[in-house]
Specification:
The complex is a heterodimer. Chain A is an alpha+beta fold. Chain A contains 19 helices and 15 strands. Chain A folds into two domains: 2-126, no CATH class; 175-430, 2-Layer Sandwich (BirA Bifunctional Protein, domain 2), CATH 3.30.930.10. In chain A, the strands form four sheets. Chain A has a seven-stranded mixed sheet with strand order 6-10-11-15-14-13-12, sandwiched between helices. In chain A, a hairpin with a 3-residue loop joins strand 13 (358-368) and strand 14 (372-382). Chain A starts with a strand and ends in a 5-residue tail after the last helix. Chain B contains 15 helices and 28 strands. In chain B, the strands form six sheets. In chain B, strands 4, 5, 6, 7, 10, 11, 12, 13, 14 and 15 form a ten-stranded mixed sheet that branches. A seven-stranded mixed sheet of chain B has the order 19-23-24-28-27-26-25, sandwiched between helices. Chain B has a three-stranded antiparallel sheet with strand order 1-3-2. At the A-B interface, helix 1, helix 11, strand 6, strand 7 and strand 8 of A face helix 8, helix 10, helix 11, strand 19 and strand 21 of B. Strand 8 (227-229) of chain A pairs antiparallel with strand 21 (394-395) of chain B.
Chain lengths: 435, 535
C-alpha cells in the first residue's frame, strides 16, 4: 500500500510547485525574479523537465505545453489523488512520485506493538519489498544482498543523477554572526581580549566618563534612547565621580579648560540604552589603569534613529583600546593599518576627524577594488580629560572603532542594513557561507 | 556631522588661487572635511568641533593657511567705540555680547553665507538657540545706547511683519515664537533695546525696524545666551568670518568689558609634549611651520618651549592636545609613517561569548537555523500575544511603538520570525542565542543582561518527545545537573510543558505552544519550543 507524505499532502491541497510556478511566471519573467519563488529549485526543475517552460537569455517563458498543463490536471496530480483515495496508482507514475518523496510505501498492519524479535527481524528485512518489486534489478543495496552475494548476479537499477533531489537545509549560523565571529578571531589573533559591559547604562559611563559635555547633542533625546523605568542608576565610587565632575567644570589637574558650568550628578545617574561601545571601554580603562593591554568589543548599541536602509535603532559596534606607555599617534595609525591587513584590506588612507573623547582623532578609509574608498571607522588618542580621572597616570590609550555593519554589508553584498538582522528564513537558508 | 553648501567660484575668488576639483576636495579632506563638488556648488560635511569653518570665509582662511598662501595669525582691524550697552537684570539669558562691523559689502554671496553660518551656529554651539542666539541688524538703523533686560511684556513689529505684536501673540502665533517659546520663561522675557525701542527679542526674533537690506553698509550684531564662553565664541567667529571679505570692527562697551574681544588666547607648548603624542620627532622649526599654516602665531622661547597665540575664533581648543592635533593635520595625516606598537598581549574571547559560540555550534548539529533579533520589542509581542503579564525595561522616547521595551525572553522573537515565514517550506527549525534584560534593583544599572538560548520547531505535526530529547541533549552538553518538573505556563498547552530546574532554580522550560498563542501570532502550524538561561 502507498500513502501521501506530508509534502504530497501539501501539494495535493495547494497544487504542485511547478504548477504554482506557471501562475507566478504568467507569460514570462526574468530568471532573477523567478528564483525568488518559494521552492523555486524544485519547481523550475520539474517545469523544465515537463517542457512547460523554457529559459532563454535569463528569461523564463511558458511553452504551449505549459499553457495546456495550466488548464488541466496532469497525470502526477491525478495519481496523487488516486493514492490518497485508494493507496495505489499506475506503476510508472508511482516511481516518479516515490522519487519525489511525495508518496511512501507502508504496510497495513494492525496497531500492535511488535515484539523485540519482530523488530529485529524487521531491521534485517528492510526494503525486501523493493527487491521483490523489480525482480531483475537491484534498486537498493541491503545487508541481505551483500550477505547472499546476490548483488553479483543482478544489475543495479540506474540512478538518474539528474532527477531533482529535495532541498536539504543545513543548520547554519546567521550570516552576520558568521562575519562577526571571523572579525573576532582576527582581533584575538592580534592580541585583543574581549570586554563586556551592560546594555542598559548610566549617562555617567556612556558620556560623562568620556568627557562628553552634559549638553552635548549626542546625549539628547534625539540621539539616545532614555529609560522611562527604571529611571536612574547608581554612580560608581565618589572619588571617581568627584574627579569627573571637576574635570568637566574646570579641567581638574588635566591642564584642560574643561567645559565650564556646573556638572549635574542627577543627569549622570540617568539610565539609557548604551549608545556606544565606548561606555565599556570607559569601564575597562577604570579597571585596567596602566597595565599594558588590548581590549575589544563587538556588541549591541542603541540609538534614537528612524529606521531605513542606512539606520537602525539597534545595531552592533566594534571597537577597542590599546593601553601602554610611550604609545603615539604614529602607533595608532600603524595599528589601524594592521587591523585593515588582518581583514584583507591592502590600501588605507586617513582623514583628520573629531570625537569628543579623543585627540588627535582620525577617520579611516579602506580601498575596495569594487567600491573605491569607503569610510570604515574612527580612532584617536584618548584625551587626558578622560584618562586622568579614570586613574591612568603614565600610559596613553589608543582607541579605535570599526563600522562593522558596513564591512559586513560589503562582504555580504547587501545594501540595506536591515538585512543584517533579517528574519527571512528563505534568505537565511539559501545564503551561502560567509567566507 | 554638520553640512554646509558653498559656491565654488566664491571660494576660489576668496582663496585667490585656481584649484581643480580634485585639489579642492583633497585640501578639504586634509582639513577634516568631506566634500562633494557638483558644478558650481560644493557640499561640505564638517565635524562639529570647528564652527569657525561653517562658512566659505572660515574655510578660505584655513585653506589659505594650509596651502601656504597666507600663514600665521590673521590681523583684525578692531577699534574701540563709545557705544555702550547697559545690562540690567537678565535671568533667563544672562550673557550678552555685541559687535559692530563697518564698511561691509553686502553681496549676494555674503548674505547667503551669513544666513547659513547664523543657522549653523544656532544648531551647533548654540544648541538650537538655547545656549547661544544671534541677531544681526543694520547698524545705521539702531540708535545707541543699548539696554538689555528681562521684561514682563512688550510690543513691537517683528522681523518681516507689518503689525505690532505683543509677547503673547509672538509666542502663540508667530512661527519662530512657536518654535522657541520653550526657551523663555513666563514673565521674564529677555529684550534688547536701543534708545528708540525694541531691536531684538532673543532668542526668538529681531525687530522689523533694524532689518538688514540691500542698502545696508554697516552691521550690528548681538549674541545672547546661557554660557559666557559660548556667546563670546559665536560673536568672534561671526565678526572674523564676515571681515574675511573686508570691513572694520568696532567694539561695544558692556559693563567693564569691550566686545568682541579678539585677543588671542596664549598657551605654551613644548617640543617634547608634541613628540610624546605624535611620535614624529618634529623639531621646533617644523612645528612652527605647521602651526603657522594652521593659522597660529608662534614665538620660540628657550629650551624647546614655544608660546602660541590661539585665534579667538577657535572654540575647540581646551588643551594642548587640541593644538598637537593641528600639528598633525598641518603635517598631513597621510605623511605620517605608521609604526607598530610593541605591546605583547594575549588575545582572548570573553567566557560568555565563547560559551555562546559553542552553544550555537551545538544547535547547528540539530539542523537548526540561527536567527538574530533585536533586544528592543514591545509589550504586545513580549507579553500580550504570549498570554502572559510581565514587567520589562521601558523606553521613554521610543522611535516607534514596535520598539518600546527590552525583551525579557527570546521565545516571542522566534514566534515573530515564524509568523514572518509562513510561506516558507516546513519544517522550520530555528534558534537564537541572545541577550535579554531583567530588572534587578540591586545592580548599578538596576538591570542585568542575561544570555539565553531558545529554539522552536514548527511543522504540520510536531513531536514533543523529539524536542525533549533535544533539550536534554543541550542540558547534558552544558553539564547542567538538572531535573524536569511539570509546569504551568500560559504560553504553553497545560500538561504539555515542563520546567527545567538546576539547584531548585528554574533556568528554563519547554513545551508545546498554546493554540491561543499561535492564533495571536496568526500561526497555522503547531510549534514546540524551549528556552534556557545560559549565562
Amino acid at each position: 500500500m502507498y500513502r501521501l507524505t506530508e509534502e504530497g499532502k501539501n501539494y495535493l491541497k495547494n497544487s504542485l510547485p511547478e504548477k504554482q510556478l506557471l501562475k507566478f511566471i504568467e507569460n514570462q519573467k526574468p530568471l532573477e525574479e523567478v528564483v525568488k519563488f518559494p521552492n523555486s529549485q524544485i519547481a523550475i526543475g520539474w517545469a523544465r523537465k515537463n517542457n512547460w517552460i523554457k529559459i532563454e537569455n535569463n528569461i523564463a517563458s511558458i511553452t504551449e505545453e505549459g499553457k495546456k498543463a495550466e488548464k488541466e490536471k496532469t497525470d502526477v496530480e491525478k495519481s496523487l489523488e488516486e493514492v490518497d483515495r485508494r493507496g495505489e496508482t499506475e506503476q510508472e507514475i508511482l516511481k516518479v512520485l516515490m522519487n519525489r518523496n511525495l508518496v511512501e510505501e507502508f504496510k497495513e498492519v494492525k496497531e500492535k506493538k511488535p515484539s523485540l524479535w519482530q523488530r529485529i527481524k524487521k531491521i534485517f528485512s528492510r526494503k525486501k519489498v523493493e527487491v521483490k518489486a523489480s525482480e531483475n534489478e537491484i534498486s537498493q543495496l541491503n545487508p541481505e544482498l551483500i550477505k547472499t552475494g546476490e548483488w553479483k548476479i543482478k544489475p543495479f537499477r540506474k540512478y538518474d543523477v539528474n532527477a531533482p533531489a529535495p532541498n536539504n537545509y543545513a543548520g547554519k549560523k546567521q550570516p552576520y554572526i558568521q562575519f562577526i565571529e571571523d572579525i573576532k578571531e582576527r582581533l584575538i589573533g592580534l592580541g585583543f581580549q574581549e570586554m563586556k559591559g551592560p546594555l542598559v547604562e548610566t549617562y555617567f559611563w556612556n558620556c560623562d566618563a568620556l568627557f562628553m559635555p552634559q549638553d552635548h547633542v549626542a546625549r539628547s533625546i534625539h540621539d539616545v534612547l532614555i529609560l522611562k523605568s527604571p529611571e536612574n542608576g547608581r554612580l560608581p565610587d565618589e572619588n571617581l565621580v568627584a574627579k569627573v565632575k571637576a574635570t568637566h567644570e574646570g579641567g581638574w589637574i588635566t591642564e584642560s579648560l574643561g567645559w565650564g558650568g556646573t556638572w549635574s550628578k542627577e543627569n549622570a545617574e540617568k539610565l539609557i540604552m548604551r549608545s556606544q561601545g565606548t561606555s565599556v571601554s570607559a569601564r575597562t580603562m577604570f579597571e585596567n589603569k596602566d597595565n599594558p593591554a588590548k581590549y575589544f568589543l563587538i556588541d549591541r548599541v542603541f540609538r534614537s534613529d528612524v529606521i531605513d536602509a542606512k539606520h537602525l535603532m539597534e545595531f552592533d559596534h566594534c571597537e577597542g583600546i590599546v593601553v601602554g606607555e610611550n604609545l603615539t599617534f604614529s602607533h595608532l595609525l600603524g595599528f589601524l593599518k594592521e587591523i585593515a591587513e588582518a581583514i584583507g584590506i591592502k590600501e588605507v588612507k586617513f582623514k583628520p576627524s573629531y570625537f569628543p573623547f579623543t585627540e588627535p582623532s582620525v577617520e579611516m578609509y579602506f580601498n575596495y577594488p569594487k567600491f573605491g574608498w569607503v569610510e570604515v571607522g574612527g580612532a584617536g588618542m584618548m584625551r587626558p580629560e578622560v584618562m586622568k580621572p579614570l586613574g591612568i597616570e603614565k600610559s596613553q590609550v589608543l582607541a579605535w572603532g570599526l563600522g562593522i555593519g558596513r564591512l559586513a554589508m560589503l562582504k555580504l553584498g547587501i545594501d540595506d542594513i536591515r538585512m543584517l538582522y533579517s528574519n527571512d528564513l528563505e534568505w537565511l537558508r539559501n545564503k551561502s557561507l560567509v567566507k | 556631522m554638520v553640512s554646509i553648501e558653498i559656491d565654488k567660484k566664491d571660494l576660489l575668488n576668496l582663496v585667490g588661487k585656481e584649484l581643480s576639483n580634485n585639489e579642492i576636495e583633497e585640501v578639504l579632506f586634509l582639513l577634516k572635511i568631506e566634500s562633494k563638488i557638483d558644478n558650481d556648488k560644493i557640499e561640505c560635511e564638517l565635524t562639529p568641533d570647528r564652527p569657525d569653518m561653517l562658512s566659505v570665509e572660515g574655510l578660505t582662511r584655513e585653506i589659505k593657511g594650509f596651502l601656504g598662501i597666507e600663514t600665521g595669525q590673521k590681523k583684525y582691524d578692531v577699534t574701540d567705540s563709545n557705544f555702550v550697552l547697559k545690562k540690567e537684570k537678565a535671568e533667563v539669558r544672562p550673557y550678552i555680547v555685541c559687535g559692530i562691523i563697518l564698511d561691509v559689502k553686502l553681496t549676494d554671496e555674503l548674505v547667503r553665507s551669513l544666513m547659513q553660518i547664523q543657522e549653523k551656529l544656532h544648531a551647533t554651539i548654540g544648541r538650537d538657540r538655547k545656549k547661544v542666539a544671534i541677531g544681526v541688524h543694520d547698524f545705521d538703523k539702531v540708535k545707541p545706547p543699548f539696554t538689555y533686560k528681562d521684561v514682563t511684556d512688550e510690543k513691537f513689529v517683528p522681523l518681516n511683519e507689518t503689525k505690532e505684536m505683543n509677547i503673547k501673540q509672538i509666542l502663540e502665533e508667530h512661527p519662530k515664537g512657536k518654535d522657541y517659546a520653550h526657551l523663555v520663561k513666563d514673565g521674564k522675557y529677555p529684550m534688547l533695546y536701543d534708545s528708540e525701542g525694541v531691536i531684538s527679542f532673543p532668542p526668538i526674533i529681531n525687530s522689523e525696524r533694524t532689518k538688514v537690506t540691500d542698502e545696508t553698509k554697516n552691521l550690528f550684531i548681538d549674541v545672547t545666551g546661557t554660557d559666557e564662553r559660548a556667546v563670546n565664541q559665536a560673536l568672534n567667529i561671526l565678526v572674523c568670518n564676515i571681515t574675511e571679505r573686508g570691513g572694520k570692527i568696532l567694539t561695544v562697551k558692556i559693563g567693564n568689558k569691550k566686545t568682541p574681544d579678539l585677543e588671542p588666547y596664549k598657551i605654551s607648548l613644548e617640543v617634547e609634549a608634541v613628540d610624546k603624542i605624535l611620535g614624529l620627532g618634529l623639531n621646533e622649526n617644523k612645528i612652527e611651520e605647521t602651526l603657522k599654516r594652521m593659522r597660529y602665531d608662534v614665538r620660540k622661547m628657550k629650551g624647546g618651549k614655544m608660546e602660541l597665540s590661539v585665534p579667538s575664533y577657535r572654540s575647540d581648543i581646551l588643551h594642548t592636545v587640541d593644538i598637537i592635533e593641528d600639528v598633525a593635520i598641518g603635517y598631513g595625516y597621510n605623511n605620517i609613517q605608521p609604526l607598530l606598537p610593541k605591546i605583547a598581549t594575549i588575545g582572548k574571547q570573553s567566557d560568555l561569548e565563547k560559551l555562546s559560540k559553542k552553544i550555537r555550534e551545538l544547535m547547528l548539529g540539530f539542523e537548526m537555523q540561527e536567527i538574530l533579533n533585536f533586544v528592543l520589542t514591545n509589550e504586545e509581542n513580549e507579553f500580550k500575544k504570549m498570554n502572559i503579564d510581565g514587567k520589562a525595561v521601558e523606553i521613554l522616547n521610543p522611535i516607534s511603538n514596535e520598539f518600546s521595551i527590552c525583551r525579557t525572553w527570546l521565545l516571542p522573537s522566534l514566534l515573530k520570525t515564524l509568523a514572518a515565514n509562513k510561506h516558507v517550506e516546513y519544517p522550520q527549525k530555528i534558534f537564537e542565542v541572545g541577550d535579554c534584560i531583567h530588572i534587578v534593583e540591586k545592580e548599578e544599572t538596576k538591570t542585568k543582561s542575561i544570555r539565553k538560548l531558545a529554539a522552536v520547531v514548527s511543522n504540520y505535526e510536531t513531536n514533543l518527545t523529539e524536542l525533549k530529547s533535544l533539550v536534554e541533549s543541550v542540558l547534558k552538553n552544558l553539564d547542567y545537573n538538572y531535573t524536569i518538573k511539570e509546569f504551568n505556563h500560559p504560553s504553553f498547552i497545560e500538561s504539555r510543558c515542563g520546567e527545567i530546574l538546576v539547584d531548585n532554580k528554574r533556568i528554563g522550560f519547554f513545551g508545546e505552544v498554546h493554540p491561543q498563542v499561535l492564533e495571536n501570532w496568526k500561526l497555522e502550524n503547531p510549534v514546540i519550543a524551549f528556552e534556557i538561561e545560559v549565562g
